[in-house]
Structure formats: structure tokens, C-alpha cells
Design goal:
39% of the residues lie in helices and 20% in strands. It has 244 residues and is α/β, with parallel strands linked by helices. It has one domain: Spore Coat Polysaccharide Biosynthesis Protein SpsA, Chain A (Alpha-Beta Complex), CATH 3.90.550.10. The protein starts with 12 loop residues before the first strand and ends in a 5-residue tail after the last helix.
């Protein structure tokens, strides 16, 4: 459902949000899109939530049901999109005010194909600030999906979307985009929940993130890394809303 109060010449932004039992967070994510200047649409690709996620999202989003798995859900949402510009947002993240207008200006005045926002965490604090500062470094190997990836729809389709792998599908897509030499780091910050670090512990979460990241860049297949992720089940990981 595209917000229709807009100029016919403005770029339509399709915001795709993968969800699984995100009732505690989804409203804030939706609200961060609803305050943006139109035209926009929200597509929630849900992996069979058993809480109120879909009921909340249906008030302003197109909700589709997808076999659970983050890459699968993101791709399914993109396939339903009508906009020329795709914005992938985690369910526990929020767009900054004015984000979509800023992206429209970037894409209207140049050959930009894709990019990513900066990152900050909620709640704030010493460790969240340190981690966010590291994540903001302009290095594509630190471009995780919780920062909010945006991409022209035609480029996304040319690349075949996100690779259907259980972990690091965001890094693989960004690596492809970097090779095309048209990728932008935007200084506006997406705000993401710090919940995984709070739930599993700062040092433990950082240790596991770093270990998996190093193994991935040393060539270990994502399929072998996914079971090592420090959550109870791969199903939780596949829902795809962790801050990593």
C-alpha cells in the first residue's frame, strides 16, 4: 500500500522489514517510516510470527507470509515492492527523520546505486557508543544489515537479491555492490535496539560476533557458521533481526 499523497515525479521508497515475533519493536519501526515524506510503502515479510506482529503491521503495511529465513524474507519483500528504491530495515531498528527525502536527493543527482546508513544504539551508553563508532567506519566488511541497506531496485534485481544463506547475506550483497564502485556511506544514523548485547552480555556477544566475522572472511561457508551463532536455535537467527 503506497502512501498516495505525493508528487508523481518523486521516487517511491519501498521499506522492507523482515519479522518474527517482533511485537515489542515493530510499532516503532513502522512509525519511523510513517513520519517520512511520501511516497513510500512498507512491506513486512513475516516468518510465521505467533505474537501480535502481523496485527500491528497490518495497520500501515503490506504483510506477507514467507518461510522463515532472513535472506528469504528480504527477497520476498523486495519482490512485492513497487518502488524504485528499496530500503531494508530490521524490525528493531528505526529510520532517522528525513531519511527517505535524503535518499531521494542522493539518487536523483548522481549515479549512486546503493548505500548504507550510520548506526547508533538504543539505549545509549559507553559500550553501545564504542560499538556504533566502529560500525560507522567506511569499510564494507563492517556493513551489517542493522544499519539499513538501501539500493536501486533494478540493481538489486540484476544482482539476484540477497544470497539465500543463513548468515552474512548482508555482507555478501554489500561486497558485490562495492565491486560496482557506486556505494555510499550516509552519515544519518539508523537507531537499533541493543537487546542482543544486553541479553547475552557485552563481552560474550562481541566475542561471538568477532569470531564468526573472522571465520567468514577466512573462507568458512556461512552454512557452517550459522550453528555457531550464540542463540538457542537457528530458527531464532533465521528470523533475522539481530544486531550484528
Amino acid at each position: 500500500m503506497i502512501n498516495s499523497n505525493h508528487s508523481s515525479t518523486a521516487l517511491i521508497c519501498s521499506v522492507v522489514i523482515p519479522t518474527y515475533n517482533e511485537g515489542a519493536y515493530i510499532q516503532a519501526a513502522l512509525d519511523s517510516v510513517r513520519v517520512q515524506s511520501p511516497p513510500w510503502e512498507i512491506i513486512v515479510a513475516d516468518g510465521a510470527s505467533t505474537d501480535e506482529t502481523c496485527q500491528i503491521a497490518s495497520s500501515c503495511a503490506k504483510v506477507i507470509q514467507v518461510v522463515r529465513g532472513r535472506a528469504r524474507q528480504l527477497n520476498a519483500g523486495a519482490n512485492m515492492a513497487e518502488g524504485e528504491l528499496l530500503v531494508f530495515l530490521h524490525a528493531d531498528s528505526r529510520l532517522p527523520p528525513g531519511a527517505l527525502d535524503h535518499l531521494r536527493r542522493l539518487f536523483n543527482h548522481g549515479s549512486l546505486e546503493a548505500g548504507i546508513f550510520a548506526l547508533k544504539f538504543d539505549p545509549t551508553g559507553f559500550w553501545p557508543s564504542i560499538y556504533a563508532a566502529c560500525a560507522r567506519l567506511p569499510w564494507h566488511r563492517l556493513c551489517f544489515g542493522d544499519r539499513g541497506i538501501f539500493i536501486r531496485r533494478d540493481v538489486f534485481e540484476t544482482l539476484g537479491g540477497f544470497p539465500d544463506i543463513p548468515i552474512f547475506e548482508d555482507l555478501q550483497l554489500v561486497e558485490q555492490l562495492h565491486r560496482r564502485k557506486s556505494f555510499r556511506y550516509v552519515q544519518m544514523s539508523v537507531t537499533t535496539a541493543y537487546r542482543r548485547f544486553e541479553q547475552y552480555g557485552q563481552l560474550r556477544q562481541q566475542y561471538h560476533n568477532l569470531r564468526l566475522w573472522l571465520q567468514y572472511h577466512m573462507g568458512t561457508p556461512p552454512e557452517k557458521l550459522a550453528p555457531l551463532y550464540p542463540y538457542e536455535t537457528l530458527t531464532e537467527l533465521s528470523a533475522g533481526n539481530e544486531a550484528m
